[in-house]
Amino acid sequence: MITDTLAALFIIGGSFFMLVASLGVFRMPDLLTRMHATTKSGVLGAGLIMCGVMLFFIDSGVTLKALAVMAFTTLTSPIAAHAIGRAGYFIGVPLWEKTVKDELHGRYDEETHVLHSSDDQKENEDRG
Amino acid sequence: MTTLMAILIGTFYAAAIYMMLRRSVVKLVIGLILLSNAANLLIFTVAGLERGTPPLIPKGQDVIVGAAADPLAQAVILTSIVIGFGVLAFAVVLIHRACEVVQTDDMNEMKGTD
Amino acid sequence: MKPRRFNMRSLILNTGSSLLLPLLVLFSLFLLFRGHDEPGGGFIGGLVAAAAVALKLFAEDYKAARDMLRVHPLQLVGIGLVLAALAALPALFFGQSFFTAQWWSVDLPIFGHLKLSTPLLFDIGVFLGVIGAVLTVVFTLAEAEHS
Amino acid sequence: MNVLLSNLVLALIWAALTDTMNAGGLVIGFLIGYLVLVLVFRQHPDVRQYRLRVPRMFSFVVFFTKELILANLKVAYDVLTPIHLMKPGVIAMPLRAESDLEITMLANAISLTPGSLSLDVSSDRKVLYVHIMYLHNKEDVLNELKRMETKILRVMR
Amino acid sequence: MDLEVLVALPIIIPLLLGAISLTVLSNHNAQRWIGAVGTALLLFSATALLLQTKEHGIQVLEVGSWPAPFGIVLVSDMLGAIMVMLASTLGFITALYSLKTIRKRFERFGYYPLLHLLLAGVNGAFLTGDIFNLYVWFEVLLVASFALLILGGERAQMEGAIKYVTLNLLSSALFLTAIGLTYGLVGTLNMADIAVKLGSVDDQKMVTVIGSLFLIAFAIKAAAFPLFFWLPASYHTPQVAVSAIFAGLLTKVGVYALYRVFTLIFTADTGFTHEVLLWMAVFTMLTGVLGAAAQFEIRRILSFHSISQIGYMMLGLALFTPLALIGGIFYIVHHSIVKSSLFLTSGLIYRLGGSFELKKLGGLYRKHPGLAILFFIPALSLAGVPPLSGFFAKFILIKAGAEVDSWWAIGIALLVGLLTLYSMIKIWNEAFWKATPEPTPPVPAPTRNVLIYFSIGILAFITVALGIFAQSMYEIAEIAASQLLNPAAYIEAVLGRGSQ
Amino acid sequence: MNPVLDYALLLCFAILSVSVFLALWRLFKGPTLPDRVVALELIASMTVGFIGLYAIRTGRDAFIDVAMVLALTAFLAAIGFARYLEKGSHRDDH
Amino acid sequence: MLIAVLSCFILACFAPWVHRLGGRQSGWLLSLLPAALFVYFASLLPEVSQGGQLQFAYPWFPGLQIQLSFLIDGLSLLFALLITGIGFFILVYGGRYLEGHQSLGRFYIFLLGFMGSMLGLVLSDNLISLFVFWELTTITSFMLIGFNHEQEDARKKAHQGLMVTVLGGLALMTGLILLGLAAGSFELSTILASGTLTEHSLYLPMLLLILLGTFTKSAQTPFHFWLPNAMAAPTPVSAYLHSATMVKAGVYLMARLHPSLGGSEAWLLILTLFGAVTMVTGIFLASRATGIKRVLAYSTVMALGTLTMLLGLGTEKAALAAVTFLLAHALYKGALFMIAGILDHSAGVKDFRDVGGLRSSMPATTAVAILASLSLAGIIPLFGFVGKELLLEAVLSASIWQIGLTVATLVANIMVVLVAAIMALTPWFGKTVETPKKPHDPNVALLIGPALLAVLGLLFGLVPALAADGILTAAASAVYGQPVTLGLSLWHGINLPLMLTISSLILGLIMFRFWAGWRHMTRFMQTAEKFGPEVIYERLMLGMTSFASWQTKTLQNGYLRNYLITTLGTVIIIVGWALLRVQHLELHISFDDIKIHEFAIVALLILSAIIAVVVRSFLAAVAMLGALGFGVALLYVFFSAVDVGITQVLVETITVLLLVLVLYRLPEFRSLSSTANRIRDAIIAGATGLLMTVLVLAITGARQLEGISEYFLQNSGPLGHGRNVVNVILVDFRALDTLGELFVLALVAIGVYAMIHLRTGALPVTNSDRRAAFNFRRAQKEKSKAEQQTKETGESS
Ligand code: NA
Ligand code: NA
Questions:
Q1: Which of B85, E222, E312, G198 would you label with C86, given CA atoms 20 to 30 Å apart?
Q2: Contact yes or no for E290/E330 (Cβ under 8 A)
């Protein structure tokens, strides 16, 4: 009974964060800010729902599976975000106009996709 | 629910066929994917929709007690999904090669053979 | 639209993929062997395994993935097909219709009670065949990018 | 790492012996194995390091979960409020982490924690580029990120 | 060992050979040996199956020992056995022809595995007693044909393949849809079981709706009017050996499926289904033959004739009398042999005359009398000239039509026979009788290989033999037809006594 | 079943249903491919969520297996798209 | 008997070798066979002439009541004797005529083949085997007409003759089938014995079809045009096929079937009318022609018309007249054709206008020619005279159109005299004309045939009883259906027919005097020919081919979308039609049990599908399909399909990966269609979708019987040893499906592999490749080991 109620709380929380994520993706002004929403809230949403599942079933097999789901999302989501973010940055997806700083700007080598740690490094290599 | 599924299936068929009728040959890919999904969902629906009763025998039991979804329909759909996937893979590569060889994506220009 | 010759060379992706890869492979085997009792089976397992190799290809490059597989995927297809077809035959030696399932129970000291059977052999054949087929397509396309 | 492996094997053996080859059995086996390792092989240098690593790992998990929830609340707040209070920007964070695994873990953790999203590592592994939601003060943000790095490195090393 | 295994061998042998062939892809000699010996083995097993079926009636094999209707059954009734025999014969001949004509490149890229698997798919389709399993074999042979079609990668092949693939996939989707609806209605996949259960459905008109969906799906495969477009678009593009086996077998699978389904399952409303079939048959004959009359490239002429001839086979089914079915079956056998033979000959014409275009050809009658004979016999047979196989096939159909007063269908069938002769003589006049035109096209491979002649010669011999020993074929076809018209026997063989 | 949980499930399904349309809108709207991919990723996560809820609803843990596979492989699509973009094709829609 | 017929075919197969063996004398050598056969048939004469019948039967195709059965009575024996007798001369003649011709060996094949077919035709008792031989004569004659196939004209004419006769042949086949159905047997002897069929309901169609066959074969107007065109064949062929034998096959069949089919109004009307018209047309055209063979060919048309007319009349006298005229015609026409050949062979002339005064250089030929021509003209005491008298008598006693027929016959006779005169006089008398070759009497091989035939004409004329008692009465009896009692005699006294004959002789000779003027006078025919049957034939053929190409261009137009539209249109029409026939179409529509999440997902899917269609970017569509795939997977999960859901997810993901791999090589979406087309496509697509929706609604819930799925739920555990029922089905209950599916994937792999690599020309997997790969990996490993070592050493330093 208590676990069921706890499970209810968890899934409501999870669903809420899913909603947050989708609102984020719906409302946020540019790619990177949208990705903030999906990466964090997506993982947390799925994770909380899985906690709900664990609490509901209270079974070691299910727990293992739910943990696996959580682990998998936690592991894959940021990697995917990294890949997309990097790709988006590379092909020049525009940033929100209110972005205050962009230290990455101009540090990708268009040809080789090498990313430089500073502008100096890039210039040195360009010269050399 | 069946009614809703029927509408969905009809939409899939219609969308698939509309895409297959386009001149731009790459749209064929989309059409084929939709077509395969449509047929699978059709089998699934007409075989009867059952909620929450997967045809899995619980641990420690020998038979399923009570209702269960139609396992045969599921097996058939599974097979047809995989076949559809294979065929689609072939079609995609074929279209890609055809565009390369014929140098166009306009089906209207692919009439060297009747 | 000629693609440039480079790989993604992303440290995070590469490392991530090498973390996930064994996980995927293990998971695919898990799906394969539990398939008879729980959701899973040769197809599903094969697709996951193929996805694993595909991840290698995407995160690193064609050569890395190809080297990882060691055999040519088309040969894998052949082996899978032969295994699957062979699963049909043992029944014939027992005077039964082909594809009649044969079950052997083996008691091993550590693994305990093991169920060996022609359906399992068949599922393994399917598993290998699916890996081979999907990867043949993927590799062929990836290879074509470089030409 | 070898010690972790030993611990896992011990957990497995425990589960097998007690015939509780399930999550619960494994967890208990792991804990018992940990105790055995820590108590019996106290002198072994690897074990000594390992002794600390397990609690650190647990504390990191707790920390991380907390951060994740906080992150989400922050996002939720921003998503749900009508005006965007964000001050996004991309900054370069100098890295202390060295190995591939360390960097990757750090980057992933950063992505999942409040207001930061790692974009890429420079090819010379010196800098991690991070997208920050509330870039009011670069130094503060950097310190925050470095705190996270420290925590991770403590678990990893 | 139980002889029931014979039913499975025509599927298992090519499947295994295909798989093994695939594992030794780089070894040309192995490929060829497996190709030749394997198809010979297949032919042997098919012959055994035919004899077994003829002697002991319908053969049923429960795959995996699962009883029908739960497991998949393989059923060899006379029609199935005949079709398997046909496929195996053509497979063997094509393999022989391929030994000397298929380039090493193609061998390396899986020509032989594809051939084996194509045969496996075809035989599977002919033998299965399960409707979904039929779909699976259809897909096997379809994908094998896709792959064989594009070997070479030329422009025409690509364009043809796109049309071929798209239209055939549409057909597959319709087929699958029809299977789904059938399953929805009766909850079973075994064809005999479907027949029984559909029989007890209240609304037979609804059953007909599903039947009409099957009809279209199979009619596309069979290349019937107005659904044949994929065939002329593609058949003339691949390797000649491939064209030959396509022409001999692929459309026949569609025809076979029509025969199977519309004699076993959908027989309650023949006033609709068989009427539609009749119209399709007539227009198929006519449009096909007119299509051929408009062509001046040998393989295209042959392709269009394939369509036209499908009409005759459908006519046999549409008339739905014992004699008509006999005629239809006779026609299927005759046409497969003759059309494969003609396609193979066209390949030889190309090798010796340098072109497929009638305009560029000539002088072959003088230069290559052997080739002339090899063309002339099947060409006349195709046109229905006695005493070759085509004559009897046509004759039986005409007689069957006359018996049921189907005058206009007969009239069209006769007219189409005349126009078929017109096209065949066109080829004969242009390629054989006409003097060699200037400039002479370069002859690609003027080798006169014995094996090539031999393989075509066998087919020519068969068409002559089918005419001279028509009685034997007739007897077999008669058994097949009587089995088709008496589905109860089939159902009993599959489901056991007391099933109805 | 606990009525609290019952209502909770109803509520959660409703929330997720709304969410999925928001994500779909972004998927449709783009404007760039990475935007769509992000939306797609999110839909995958929501699918995991849906499956979790449904497993609770039906009390059948077997459904979690689908979520497990999804969680482990869905990101591959994103990786694929990312690779495509890095390969440097410049279309009107990135 | 079978041996008699087959021997020709067997010899035909070995003819080229015999030819090589026999060299110059090969004709003689081969002619031994017809000679032997002639002797054999002649040996049957005594029995047959007494009204006896011989029957032989060999089983062939009992399933269809087809057997090789032979019937020898007066009629068939007459033909058999003609075929073998004249065949003997033709082989001898042809061997010399075509001496040195490179295709002489093939000529023998077809001539002997033809002889066998013709024998089979006239001897067959079984209608179908008769038809088989009938068609074989068509094919062999095609090969013979096209003997000089390198000339376009010969090919064209051969094709034409074939088309016309095969058209008739097909009609004949149908007619014979009907005849067989009506009479209950395919055996002529049975049919003839069972009496007349004129009252049968199938009589008229049967008659018309059979007559179409015989008319085309026997060159009745309007099908007469192919016969003169068939003169493209070498002269021996013309002599044999187109005068003595093949063209008479039609006549033979009419005569043969007369007892069963004759005697009706329709028979009488059609045969006499067509016969008379053909007779007049033929001889009129002959009178205008100048080519030697052409003149003879047209006069053959006239003879065929005459025979048809006589058979139409069907009286006892007419029957006797027909067989007499037939024999007479065979004798003189065979001879005259061979003379025409000699003229070409020895003098190189083909046209009457290019020849004259050859009597001194070719005396023997002249004599033979005159003798044969006299028979043609019907001059006493030649056999032709006997025939003509009987003809006139038969016509004069005709039951219909008496005067018309008589006048027609008279007119024909006048012009026959003209033709005979031309043949008898023009080449041999008058001014000597320079000929391409130095004229000389030919070798005995060439001359013996015409000479003997002409002499026979004289012999039978002098002693008609010889022919009559020998065979003609028996033949006439077979035609008439009852024993014929009339006899033949040379002199009937001075009667009307004689008067008519004499007057036509005089008028004919007058016409000969003004032959050139006659030709000039009737030049209007040149314009008339433009509307003649040959032109109609050509127009028809042209029309057919242009319709064919129009139709093909319209249907097979190269546009995939049109193919798809046609296909889908067929689906909509046929399935829709079938659906409309359902009286109580019950659609199970209900929206009661929809859960919110289900509704959401279905809505999501519908939206995704629509968006995937309307979206302008391929990538967006692919991404959309990804979402769609997840949605579909969710539906599977919602309705209890776990394995399917997993597979769907995986397949979707891998599909996206594949698309991504080819994406940048695929062109972007383009909007190419016009709005009108889009609307049309949308209608087609919508209609199909609607149809499917209706089908689903109609089928769902309509199941009355329990399906088989319960079995799997019950038995997977106990018998399949697995708890995942779907998987047990896949790997055990229905393993064959899965095996097939696996092979589909394998085939896709091979196909894709070949498709890509055949282009790049990269070598496929080979042993050397594998070795190279192995070596490469080893090298890599060593390299990395070395690197590590250097690194370590570097760190330590
Ligand atoms: Na499967
Ligand atoms: Na065909």
A1: B85
A2: no
Look-up of token digits 């199909």: G688
Task: State whether A117 and D112 contact (CB < 8 Å).
Answer: no
**Residue pairs spanning A and F at CB distance below 8 A:** 195
E303 CA distance to ligand 2 centroid (A)?
7
User: How high is the pLDDT of residue B6?
Assistant: 95
pLDDT in tens, G577-608: 999 998 888 888 888 888 899 999 999 999 99
Tokens representing residue G610 in the block: 């629509």
Helices F64-73, C42-59: crossing angle, 10 deg rounding? 20
Task: Give me the half-sphere count of Cα atoms (radius 13 Å) on the Cβ side of residue E374.
Answer: 23
Query: Tens digit of pLDDT for each residue in E102-127?
Result: 887 788 888 999 999 999 999 999 99
Query: E473 lies in a domain?
Result: no
Domain residues for the domain of E414 are 287-468
CA of C128 to the centre of ligand 1 (A): 14
Torsion sign across C-alpha atoms A26, A27, A30, A33? negative
In this prediction, residue B98 carries a pLDDT of: 84
Residue E460 lies in a domain: yes
User: Within chain C, how many helices (H) and strands (E) appear?
Assistant: 6, 2
pLDDT value at residue C5:
45
Residue pair G410/G391 in contact (Cβ under 8 Å)? The answer is: no
Nearest to residue G109, comparing CAs of G151, G139, G149, G69?
G139
Give pLDDT tens digits for C57-66.
888 888 888 8
The interface predicted TM-score (ipTM) is 0.94
E450-468 vs E369-383: helix crossing angle, rounded to 10:
30
- The answer to whether residue G765 neighbours chain C at the CB level (below 8 Å) is yes
Q: Which residues of B touch F59 (CB under 8 A)?
A: 52
Contact B93 G662 (CB under 8 A): yes
Is C137 at the interface with chain E, CB within 8 A?
A: no
Q: Decide: E and D in contact? Rule: 3+ Cβ pairs under 8 Å.
A: no
Amino acid at G311: L
Interface check for C8 against chain F (CB to CB < 8 A): the answer is yes
Does residue B102 carry a pLDDT above 50? Answer: yes
Is E346 domain-assigned? Answer: yes
pLDDT at residue C37, as a whole number: 85
**Which domain range does residue A45 map to?**
2-95+102-127
Residue A93, chain C, CB below 8 Å: the answer is no
Q: B60 to chain C: nearest residue by CA?
A: C37
- pLDDT tier at D23, thresholds 50, 70, 90: low
Q: How far is CA G422 from CA G225, G452, G511, G519, in A?
A: 22, 22, 10, 13
- The number of folded domains in chain E is 1
pLDDT value of residue G586: 82
pLDDT in tens, G498-546: 888 899 999 999 998 888 888 888 888 777 777 788 888 889 999 999 9
- Does residue E204 fall inside a structural domain? no
Ligand nearest to the CA of E132: 1
CA-to-CA distance for F60 and B54, rounded, in angstroms?
8
Instruction: From G364, G389, G348, select the one nearest G487 (Cα to Cα).
Output: G389
- Domain tally, chain A: 1
In this complex, the residue of C8, C39, C59 whose CB is nearest that of residue F65 is C39
For residue G369, name the pLDDT band (cuts at 50, 70, 90). Answer: very high
**Strands lying side by side in the sheet with D116-121:** A101-102, D89-94, D127-132, D116-121
Binning pLDDT at 50, 70 and 90, where does residue D20 land? low
Chain F, window 21-60: residues with a beta carbon less than 8 angstroms from a chain A beta carbon: 22-23, 25-26, 32, 34-35, 37-39, 41-42, 45-46, 48-49, 52-53, 55-56
Q: Which two tokens stand for residue A81?
A: 């975000």
| Per-residue pLDDT tens over the stretch E24-58 | 888 888 889 999 999 999 999 999 999 999 999 99
Instruction: Calculate what percentage of chain E has a pLDDT beyond 90.
Output: 73
